[in-house]
Amino acid sequence: MPLTMNVRKRLPHFELRAELRCEPGSLTALVGPSGAGKTTLMRIAAGLEQPDQGRVALGSTVWVDTGAGIFVLPRHRGLGFVFQDYPLFPHLTVRANVAIAARRKGRVDELLEMFGIARLAGKRPGAISGGERQRAAFCQALARDPVLLLLDEPFSALDAATRRALRQELVALKTELAVPILHVTHDLEEARELGDTIVAVEEGCVSADWLARNSPAPAPGAVQNTAAACKAPPTQ
C-alpha cells in the first residue's frame, strides 16, 4: 500500500506545503538544505506532528484528514522508525531491545542473524559499537513488522565503512520488506544509491530546481520527484 501525503503546516520561517507518494517496496529519499522541512514532513507521516491542513494515508487507511477531523496516533499506525541516535534502552540487552518491539517472537533471532549481530544478543548497548547499535535499532524497527519504515538520517553518526555496509543491507532489504520507506538524508550520494525516488525540499516546497543545482547527475533509475511543487492541499 502506498503512502500518500498532501499537507500544509506553518513553520517559523515559511509554510511547509508538500505532496508526495511513496510506493511499497521502494525508498523515497528526502533531501535538501538544513531546516527545509524534511524532518517535519517525516514527523507528520509518523504522527509526531499534525499538519494545519491536509491528508495522510497508507493505501485506503486514512491517518490524517484535517477536513474530516481524523488523526490516528503514532502507536496505532504500525510504523517502524530509525533515528540517527539509535535510542535503545541502555539497561536491556540487544536481544531484549529487539524483543520488546517484536510482534512475532520468532522474528527476533532472524533479524539479529540478518544484521550480523546475533553474537551480541546478550550485550547491552553501552558495550557495543555505534554501528552495532544502529544495526540493533534497525532490528528493533523491523521487529514491529511495520507497514511503513521511516529513516531519519540513520547513518549520519557512523564511520564511512559502516555507512557503506548498512546502505548495502538496506538496498537488499527494500524489496523483501514490500512496504514504503521514507528516508531523510543530507547525503546526496546516499540518496542516489538508495532512492528509487528522490524528493528535494527547499523552504517547505518540493523543489526540482534545488536537486538540479546540487545533483546534476541523478542515479540511473532514480526518479526526481517534481510533482506538485509547493502545491497546497485543497481547501477544506
Description:
The protein is α/β, with parallel strands linked by helices and 236 residues long. The chain is built from seven helices and twelve strands. Strand 8 (148-152), helix 5 (160-177) and strand 9 (181-184) form a beta-alpha-beta unit. It has two domains: 1-78 and 147-236, Rossmann fold; 88-145, no CATH class. The longest helix has 18 residues, at 160-177. Strands 3, 7, 8, 9, 10, 11 and 12 form a seven-stranded mixed sheet that branches. The protein is globular and about 45 Å long. It has helices spanning 38-46, 94-99, 106-114, 130-142, 160-177, 188-194, 208-214, and strands spanning 3-10, 15-22, 27-31, 53-58, 61-65, 70-71, 79-82, 148-152, 181-184, 197-202, 205-206, 223-224.
Number of domains: 2
Radius of gyration, taken over Cα atoms and rounded to an integer in Å: 18 Å
Query: What do we call the CATH topology of the largest domain?
Result: Rossmann fold
CATH architecture of the largest domain: 3-Layer(aba) Sandwich
Instruction: Estimate what percentage of residues fall within beta strands.
Output: 15-25%
CATH H-level homologous superfamily name of the largest domain: P-loop containing nucleotide triphosphate hydrolases
The CATH class of the largest domain turns out to be Alpha Beta
Count of discrete alpha- or pi-helical segments spanning 4 or more residues:
7
The low-confidence runs, each spanning 5 or more residues with pLDDT under 50, are: 218-236
The count of DSSP E runs of length 2 or more, i.e. the number of strands, is 12
H/E order of the elements?
EEEHEEEEHHHEHEHEEHE
Helical residue percent band? 25-40%
User: What structural class do helix, strand and pairing data support?
Assistant: alpha/beta
Ends apart, CA distance between termini: 25 Å
Biggest sheet architecture: 7 strands, mixed
Mean pLDDT: 86
CA-based shape: globular
